[in-house]
TrEMBL record:
GO terms for cellular component: cytoplasm. Its EC number is 3.7.1.3. It is an enzyme of class 3 (hydrolase). This is Kynureninase. Homodimer. Catalyzes the cleavage of L-kynurenine (L-Kyn) and L-3-hydroxykynurenine (L-3OHKyn) into anthranilic acid (AA) and 3-hydroxyanthranilic acid (3-OHAA), respectively. It catalyses: 3-hydroxy-L-kynurenine + H2O = 3-hydroxyanthranilate + L-alanine + H(+); L-kynurenine + H2O = anthranilate + L-alanine + H(+). It comes from Cryptosporangium arvum DSM 44712. Keywords: Hydrolase, Pyridine nucleotide biosynthesis, Pyridoxal phosphate. Its cofactor is pyridoxal 5'-phosphate. GO terms for molecular function: kynureninase activity; pyridoxal phosphate binding. GO terms for biological process: anthranilate metabolic process; L-kynurenine catabolic process; L-tryptophan catabolic process to kynurenine; NAD+ biosynthetic process. Belongs to the kynureninase family. SUPFAM superfamilies: PLP-dependent transferases (SSF53383).
Length: 398
């Protein structure tokens, strides 16, 4: 295995690490849960308080704030989603956005009453769909996925049919890091006459996406992982142009109305993706994300993905050399084409071990039943940092 120093010396993205606020830890291995803040974000937040909010006050709504959900959505779409303008909007939480999209998709397929999902999807996705099924009298059709792999096009083809309204899947499995075949699965769903909602929380900002080229219908994602938007940063929704005027969101707030300040007696949705806004846009929460999108665009998402693959390959090589002999099992696909931005390692001791690692300044996370996720945010993570953390894992297992 090439050592970490050689990897870092050859890394074209190494200078970007200095753009982040330094963390007083030995190794931060949880960038797929919460990205580190950028130095420029600290300065921009102060400037926003002093020069925009502080000086312009309510006048700033008419000077740009009202357009931030769609303006920032267009930037996010261009930089990370492969989406033309007018299809992406920022606001709400992932949970709320997912509810809006699934409800809209279900209602856009009248006469169809089945929702397809998988047993190993993130709990929020499963819980939201259970609630919608109860609310709308729909039937859930479950795909039993291998936790160490993920849902395949063949598995989807086996369950969709004339009763299927919508399929909801994750692009990258939160537990194993399995990278699903978005265009292949989307084609299968379309052949059945249904719509698909993709959860891209664990891929946006680290895996290049091509929503328009892949004929994606709808997608939702968070922005505090690889987009470094900060804790509680607003989520986003993608709604393909073909569904504008067909899919109508269920949470009819005044900010998604055709004329919010008419204060009229009835709701008339805004044209296009704007109708998926409900309440007041979270302007402050959008600021850090804009800074990270600028950085990703500067570095190039292709280069980010290349380093992500190199980092995960480094973890796999270290694991084979130093951890497998201690009973560790790799629960992530070894094929880079089927792997997202994190590696999951299984060991029966990890549940007790991870809190001890945190005390030693090594910060991975734990997922039941016995998985330790090594989350690698390429622009802020060095190979040396990863190696330091994994060596302490090896020591702890000994």
């Amino acid at each position: 295995m090439t050592n970490a120093t050689e990897h870092d010396a050859a890394d074209p993205l190494a200078p970007y690490r200095d753009r982040f606020v330094p963390a007083d830890v030995v190794a931060y291995l949880d960038g797929n849960s919460l990205g580190r803040p950028l130095r420029v974000t600290r300065d921009n937040l102060v400037r926003f308080v002093d020069e925009v909010w502080g000086e312009r006050l309510i006048r700033a709504w008419g000077e740009g704030w009202m357009q931030t959900p769609t303006d920032l959505g267009d930037t996010l779409g261009r930089v990370t989603l492969g989406a033309a303008p007018g299809q992406t909007v920022v606001g709400d939480s992932t949970t709320v956005m997912l509810y809006k999209l699934v409800r809209a998709a279900l209602d856009a397929r009248p006469g169809r009453t089945e929702i397809v999902l998988d047993t190993d999807n993130f709990p929020t996705d499963r819980y939201v769909l259970e609630g919608i099924a109860a609310e709308r009298g729909a039937t859930l059709r479950w795909i039993t996925a291998d936790p160490a792999a993920g849902v395949t096009a063949d598995q989807v083809a086996a369950v969709v049919g004339p009763g299927t309204a919508v399929v909801v899947l994750s692009h990258v499995a939160y537990r194993s890091g399995y990278l699903a075949d978005v265009p292949g699965i989307t084609e299968v769903v379309h052949d059945a006459g249904a719509l698909v909602v993709w959860d891209v929380c664990h891929s946006v900002g680290v895996v290049p996406l091509q929503f328009d080229a892949w004929n994606v219908d709808l997608a939702v994602g968070c922005t505090y992982k690889y987009l470094n938007g900060g804790p509680g940063a607003p989520a986003f929704a993608y709604v393909a142009t073909a569904l504008h005027g067909v899919a109508r969101q269920p949470i009819q707030g005044w900010m998604g109305a055709a004329d919010p300040f008419a204060m009229g007696p009835g709701y008339q949705p805004a044209a296009g993706v704007r109708q998926f806004v409900s309440g007041t846009p979270p302007v402050v929460g959008m600021l850090p994300m804009r800074d990270m999108l600028d950085l990703i665009e500067e570095a190039g998402l292709g280069a980010v993905r290349a380093k992500s693959i190199a980092l995960t390959e480094f973890v796999l090589a270290f694991t084979d050399e130093h951890l497998v002999g201690k009973g560790v099992r790799v629960a992530t696909p070894r094929d880079a084409e089927r792997r997202g931005g994190h590696v999951t390692l299984d060991h029966p001791s990890f549940r007790e071990l991870v809190p001890q690692l945190w005390k030693r300044g090594v910060i991975p996370d734990f997922r039941m039943p016995d998985g330790m996720r090594i989350g690698l945010s390429p622009l802020s993570t060095s190979f040396a940092e990863v190696e330091r953390g994994l060596r302490i894992v090896a020591e702890a297992l000994s």
